[in-house]
Amino acid sequence: MNGAATPPVVYIAPVVTMDPQRPRAAALAVAAGRVVAVGSVDEVRATVPAGAPEHALDGVILPGLIDAHMHMQRGGLKALAYLQDGADADEYIEAMRRTFGEESWPGGEPTLEQRVAGLRRVQPLLHALGFTGVVDPAVTIEEMRGYQEAHRRGALTMRTVAMPYLEPGSAATPDIDAVIGHLEGTGVSTGFGDDVLRLGPIKIYVDGEGLRGEALLHEPWNETGYRGLQRMADDDLDRLVRFCAENGWGIGAHAVGGAAIATVTRRFSTAGAAVRERRFQLIHAYLEPRLIDLTEAARCGVVASLQPSIIWHNGRGLRERLGERAERANPVRSWIDAGAVVAFGSDGPFFAFDPRLLIWQAITRRVDGSQRPLSLDEAITVQEALAAYTIGAAYASLAEESRGMLRPGMLADWVLWSADPTTVATDELRALRVLRTEVGGRTVFSARKGGKPGVDVVGTN
Question: Which domains does the chain have, with CATH numbers?
Answer without folding.
Answer: 9-63+407-446 (2.30.40.10)
